[in-house]
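Re: export button greyed out
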Amino acid sequence: MTRIAEFAVEYIQFLDPAGKPTQDIPPHLAEAEAITPMYRLMALTRTFDAKAIALQRTGQLGTYASSLGQEAIGAAVGLAMRQDDVLVPSYREQAAQFARGVTLEELFLYWSGDERGSRYSGPQFDFPISIPIATQSCHAVGAAAAIKLRGEPRVVVEGCGDGATSKGDFYESLNLAGVWHLPVVFVVSNNQWAISVPRSRQSGAKTLAQKAFAGGFEGVQVDGNDPVAVRFAMDNALERARSGGGPTLVEAVTYRLQDHTTADDASRYRDAEEVETAKQSDPMIRTRRYLESLQAWGDEDEAALKEECGRRVQEAVEAYLATPPEPPEAMFDSLYAELPGALTGQRAEAIKENSDG
Amino acid sequence: MSKKTYRQAINEALAQEMRRDPTVIFMGEDNVGGMGAPGEDDAWGGVLGVTKGLMPEFGRERCLDTPISESAFIGAAVGAAATGLRPVAELMFVDFMGVCFDQIFNQAAKFRYMFGGKAVTPVVIRTMYGAGFRAASQHSQCLYPLFTHIPGLKVVMPSSPYEAKGLLTQAIRDDDPVIFFEHKVLYDDEEEVPDDPYTLPFGEANLTREGDDVAIVTLGRMVKLSNEVADKLEGDGISCTVVDLRTTSPLDEDTIIECAEETGRVVVVDEANPRCSMATDISALITQNAFGALKSPIKMVTAPHTPPPFAPELEDIYIPTPAKIEAAVREVVAYSREVVA
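Workaround output, generated via the alternate export path:
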């Protein structure tokens, strides 16, 4: 017998849950200048998250998917990307979207069901949130094909969860990205739960990262609660894609501390003890501890950050709540580039039937 | 102007748009063929040869053979469209659309809408449809009503080489997702087609015959059969209007209603299965808007509500024929005379 191929999955971690380095951190990532922006973004996202749930509970927002406990991934991914790269996000990538310039107000609008929330004022080429599972991986591959055809030094980053990696769309996308050697990075936020189905029941594969090998490219697993590890893996993957080295899959291992969405109650299917244990690995704790160990963060900084996040979120809430609802004709206005004649009558009827007069 | 087949007309529209606009690419299974086999490049050109000859001019970067992954490449076409390209994806047979319905119904059709008008998806999905090719139930269906049902899509049904070139050119230039239906029995049909690029408008039906007695409302391959019937009956003193819908979405409701009002007798000819079809939809439209003008009940000539049979003798019975169309026209005319008498 001859061994004709071998594959190995690397695991990357730089900070343990207590914020202590587990190995030497590359100098450019070890400094406070690299870590503080991620920490600030994580704090902003967590403040947004808590407010979104409060708004939903009081009937002022639609169903909302929390990213509590997963903020390190989005912060590191979003800040690692260049502005003209393309983010193709799932629904738990708030931190990455904020890093890319999507505003708090836009995401409040989005989660209230207002399509105007997806009309980002910031990133012009990012895709809006994909609620269907894994469908966006195909779009990411197409966007990457467009970029490659034009010879642009840009990279597409697709985000999805552990459940998405079971779907045909995901496997097909990995295959196509590999065979076309496309500039795309697949970031799998493995938060251990696909609604009520645990990771152990999702796939028989030891890691989700190894699914990349079938596509013909590298997969790596990182501690998703360690922003340094995620940033390190993303820097490598983005550089590889940008320089013509093809795709990478980054599996970021994390934990969903909240319910799947506000329409879910995870206590019915999930052991409270497991959640308590997971809280010990909270990405914000270790990031703060590490910054403190660098003498780069203190109680005053924390208090100022809390105040700033609270103020920014509050301002966004006020702007969101003050946004007038869309008029009835908006139901037709984004349907086609130009509304076909047969629908103009329906549009006029909608205005007439729903006018105040 | 020169004689061109339906196949050549489609190929020419693609080539001319690819020359005109560097963002136009095409992709699909076996669209080029021979990849990596010395001397065999461009050996295939799609299963019925529609895209043959394009790769040597436009290169592998713009003429893409995909893995057998309908979700991935239809989704990728949507993603590429949202990122500035105008992809023309070929999904070999419309019967295979089921494997990527999500990408078409929930993604392509809803990108612009759900993203507040920000995302634009100028993608064309070309596909073959129709019976008469001895290709059995899973390669012969007329599934255009499914796509017509979905707001956000445009559905195009070219009935001849001239129509195919003009409508495909329009489809590629259009900023909305378009499903372009090519009837596999029409590929070798030939007629005069302009050499220069031209577009035919969506949502504007074409009257291929004009008459006073009966309006035959039809689409796709059935236009050809309906024209034959109209020409034959003209000699018998029955004059027919033939309405070629061209697109089922958008649908030219005004022309359908006008022709129904002018003639008072309508036969709808549709190769698709009859439930929830264009035939039923058009009948309802006319009943709602031109009831007072009708001199007879609307007749529908369609396939029966069965899959297209594989057995040749059954398939021939399955497809609407000129004889069935003629019988329907004579019936609505006779009905009218009885009422008058």
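Chain B has a mean pLDDT of 94. The button fix ships in the next patch.
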